[in-house]
Design a protein that fits this description.
CATH class: Alpha Beta
Keywords: ATP-binding, NAD, Nucleotide-binding, Nucleotidyltransferase, Pyridine nucleotide biosynthesis, Transferase
Protein name: Probable nicotinate-nucleotide adenylyltransferase
Family: Belongs to the NadD family.
Helix content: 25-40%
Bound molecules: adenosine-5'-triphosphate
Strand content: 15-25%
Largest sheet: 6 strands, parallel
CATH architecture: 3-Layer(aba) Sandwich
Number of domains: 1
Strand order of the largest sheet: 3-2-1-4-5-6
Radius of gyration: 16 Å
Pathway: Cofactor biosynthesis; NAD(+) biosynthesis; deamido-NAD(+) from nicotinate D-ribonucleotide: step 1/1
Shape: globular
Low-confidence stretches: none
Catalytic activity: nicotinate beta-D-ribonucleotide + ATP + H(+) = deamido-NAD(+) + diphosphate
CATH superfamily: HUPs
Length: 200
Amino acid sequence: MKLGLFGGTFDPVHLGHLLLAERCREELDLDEVRFLPAASNPLKENGPVADGKQRCEMAQFAISGHPQFKVDRREVKRGGPSYAVDTLAEIAAENPGAELFFLMGADALADLPDWKEPQRVLELATVVAVNRGDDTAVVPAALNLGNASQVRFVAMPACDYSATDLRRRAGAGMSLRYRTPAAVIAYLYDKNLYRADEGA
Ligand code: ATP
């Protein structure tokens, strides 16, 4: 069993996230990809705008219909800062024999040396860094990799969407169409998320 794990704030989830997950599923022949919304990201200055339940619900709407995509709510339920190493250790213990792949944008790979126990992260999972378009990320020297196969690179088409931009657009009353699935747009309108008066 090859299990892909995709952590993020997903505030909100968008098509860049979905395409990254799908490219990794294809390229690495993953049996399942789990989206893992973080309670809060220890490396981000500001906390998420939408609460954990809302971000999980948006992710659930976004993956609807994909038989191999799942949302795992454990980090939101656990609360506090979400450390990948804790989540990976739990999932490894629950899935003996599964091969774990931890998916991230290549931009996030540069921060990996600053994570809690980065070497342990690399022992628990193969880190998969996804290059967008012409990006050519390399393994950060600070990781001191003994075994180069602990990091793999996958390419995807450039897709410049960001959750920050979606929040800004929602706040300005601009269109979100084709940036995130229609069900996510309907949800965030319904909940009045990211409106200008909520400080998005
Ligand atoms: P924000 O704009 O709020 O910082 P974000 O859009 O970068 O959010 P995150 O939830 O922080 O989204 O990102 C989760 C993961 O998705 C990270 O590994 C990040 O590199 C990756 N990612 C974000 N946007 C894209 C995109 N457009 N294409 C591919 N990967 C992306």
